Amino acid sequence: MTDPNFQHAVESAFREEWGRIVATLIGRTGDWDLAEECAQEAFAQALRRWAVDGVPQRPGAWLTTVAGNRAVDRLRRDSRGAELMEQVGRDGSPAGSNGEVMREASDGAAAIADDRLRLIFTCCHPALPLEGRVALTLRSLAGLTTAEIARAFLVSEGTMAKRITRTKTKITAAGIPYRVPPAHLLADRTAGVLAVLYLMFNEGYAASSGPDLIRSGLCDEAIRLTRSLHQLMPDEPEVAGALALMLLHHSRHRARLDDAGELLTMEEQDRSRWDEAAIREGLEVLDSALHRRQVGPYQLQAAIAACHAQAESTTETDWEEIAGLYALLERQMPSPVVTLNRAVAVAFAGNIGAGLAIIEELADDPRLQDYYLLEAARADLLRRRTDYLAATECYERALQLAPSDVERRYLLRRLREVAIS
Questions:
Q1: Contact by Cβ (8 Å): 415, 421
Q2: Across all residues in the chain, what is the average pLDDT?
């Protein structure tokens, strides 16, 4: 008899377990491609078996076992298998009697025995290009498709595929070890690691494709790994800033959709549903980081999130403060997306015309040609200025670009509103 819930269970397991499985297999074999291929085969087998046998009590353990067995079988058949395992051993991870690779702990690694964190640090080796580090980790750890990662970087899928392949090749050629580095090398990896964690969080906070806007498991995983990094580097203010930023953003996740699963803007959200414990923790972590007086981009973004978290309503939000923080962020981290957010803050501070003027300057930026939020922001400001015809045109363009079903339904709702205004 077919289990009617098996497909949902497989999809859920993919979101929750992919990174764990791939990281474990890389740790055991040292082969990135083999790890991804065997993980994919395990999920394909789950689709066949769970439909008939039912969903196992511990899906992650079932998938890890199947993927591990596939990897062992592949290595036994491959004449390079013994050589590969021996090479991994020479890199500091000697094979144990049970065939698993027993990784040698480096400074800091013993306190954080986590394959996923090891994977992040391996991907973020300073010998690798920054964008390649981030992209490869999102592919290997979070299970994002090449297309999803390409959208996050605002580049083509073909460009991103080449970038990921080059990065994998360089890791193998350079013999980059799979480990959390010694303490004296941690600082060189911080920027890349934080970029990985925050992009992972963002993909969970606002999925780049698919029916669901929010992938809470991915957000939770990014926060968990950032906590681990904060424990490893308690004196690094930008690590604390990134943790505070995630906590403050994620504190709103229960209020971002209504009971029917429709998107609610911050203006529409029931703030009583915001997670007060997460807000308190985020504010405390941010305050501790700011006291070090080494303010960086993550702390500035967390300070913006704190302005929202502490306001009783949208109208009582200190938008001038937010616009000023975005201006500081632009100087530290120039980006058209940061500029777009500053434009919205300027408009909400009382000058819609100035906000629209900034957006118009961004309209010709090739990096935002397929960025639906540019058109959505312009449409919203035009709606607030009662320019309904122009707003309609912008909403229609945004609708064509919106990545998720939830966001498309939100834009359709706005389109109907301006149509009857």
A1: no
A2: 84
